[in-house]
Amino acid sequence: MTIFHMKEYDCWLQGGFKAALKAELLANIHAEDGTDAAILKQAAAELREGLVRRFGIRSEGGNGVGGVFLGTAGWLTRIYGLSFPPLKPEGFHIGVSEDRVVIAGADAAGTLYGVFRFLSLLALGEIKAGDAVADAPVAAIRALNHWDNIEGTIERGYAGGSLFFKDGEVRYDAERLRDYARLLASVGINVVSLNNVNVRTSSKLITEPFLPRIAAIAGIFRPYGVRLLLSVTFSSPEVLGGLGTSDPLDARAAAWWRERAALVYHHIPDLRGFLVKADSEGEGGPFQYGRTHADGANMLAAAVKPFGGECVWRCFVYDCTQDWRNTAFDRARAAYDHFKPLDGQFAENVILQIKHGPYDFQVREPVSPLFGAMAKTRHTMEFQITQEYTGQQIDLCFLPWMWQDVMAYDTGYGATVSGLLGAQPVSARQDAARHPAAIEGLAAVANTGLDGNWTGHTLAQANLYGYGRLCWNPALGAEEIAREWCVLTFGPGQTARTVADILMKSYPAYQKNNAPFGVCFMVEPRHHYGPSIEGYEYSRWGTYHRAGREAVGLDRTGNGTGYSAQYPAAIAAVFDDPRLCPEDLLLFFHRLRYDFRMRNGKTLLQNIYDTHFEGYDEAEALLAKWQTLEPALPPAVYCSVRERLERQLLNAREWRDQVNTYFYRHTLIPDERGRKIYE
Ligand code: GCV
Q1: Is the pTM of this model over 0.90?
Q2: Which of 46, 388, 440, 555 is catalytic?
Q3: In a domain, 494, yes or no
């Protein structure tokens, strides 16, 4: 085996590749970079820098008729008389002949994305003379949310400290932020929020001493086509303005926000807008004043509207002070119950951000019933790349494996999630063909920090890469994403194939270890790493499985909490019938006896035992497979992943033994294969 000398810091933009196109051709660059447009200049710089660093090809400046022609389609037509098929916004066309490569962007961002795609295709060995590639992002909003605190810590962060803040200040390494912006742009991310949605001490970021520093960060991201969002606390008029109220219908609060928005936009004129978590887990919100979330969001939207800004409003609103004794209450209902009745009441520059499932980024949840149902309100879907509930970047869990299921889910409104993402947003209503409930984009909680490899677990870089690629093209399968990422990171060959195989097997293994069949939340309270079967069972958070001697799970059908009725009738009918319900969601929708026969003919209990034994064995196989790569990897990379896979195995052992023991003690029914379960 040969060693590909990958550098963890470089992620999927590794050097050391051989270009299949002639160096003389690639070195001769004719680029539209003599303009004022920062993004176009960056595109040309990225092409030159990428060719040197990744392929060892140094450009000499354009001369003669051959070479690489880079710019917007309009410029290439004007200067060189080239013509192109119509390009979609932010899209590009790449055409290669024996003596010419043309990279034409629909606009400046498309040109930049065209460069990154060209370099990727070159590294993947997937571009040669005669090829033509035209592509454009499917999702208009491709956002990354950081949950960074101004102290420098990161809520649910597992990769070191904040890239943006330290000790109460905006403090960063500009070089590193540029590298970060490049990484994000290379997979098409175009919006980044910097600070935690639990705003607390970072509420002051929208005050004068901090704004110039935030503006400087915006300046680093700008040439990469990335615009910033700032998380703000709804209670700002009280907290920062000393007003004594933040009531959205109080003229003083609205005026305070208008003034504040003017100040913020004075410093950062292209800020995308404000991101808000309101009435949730201790954050203030309109409910405090007896107002609706439309009242709250619209007030903020009005404040940023004169500057072209948007109010991104999260739908993670639920009562976290519940009583476990109350079996009628169901937290899963909350987002739909709160927001569906408000559909149509939000201003045009409000974008609702809805978690992909009704709970909270569990290993397996149904898709939220709000998707497809919000026909009159702009909205995006929220994912979590940081692995709060999926192993915290100690355990390997390749998230695109689950995200592809979300994308393929048929909402029952005449479109899958991926179909809704492809549709036009509400703001482009004139298009009669558009689906009324188009999803305008994706947002995801970032998994990055100051660790040298950005993500703690080196293989967790694949989740960030995969998220960007999925925003770009929601129809991309996990396997394709894994293959691309592995070649771009580990070079072509057997090592990449082995790592891709490890990635693809990691999510099913993790799911088997975790709470059985969609029951959710059997995790250690507070930090959420590792099993605690009753950790949340008697708490206020509304996350119960109610396991007893004879049955487990929550009845969310019409006979129970009625949650399933939030879906269109045809979908609800599937979820309501335990014989039709997807088995990995069986206990999310049903309370079932342990002797319920699943589709493989075995009882529910035996399936719980089996999956947990398998989950451990599969974690063991992941480690064994990784160990075969020792001769092919730089020692530091090999060792850091091996050490994590060893910890993952210990974790899997806890999951297996705690879950199986728990159910054995409740039922006193042994494993039919006589495997070890503790008394
Ligand atoms: C930022 C979960 C997490 C919280 C997070 C919250 C949210 O509850 O545990 O850390 O808060 O989701 O999405 O707002």
Answers
A1: yes
A2: 388
A3: no
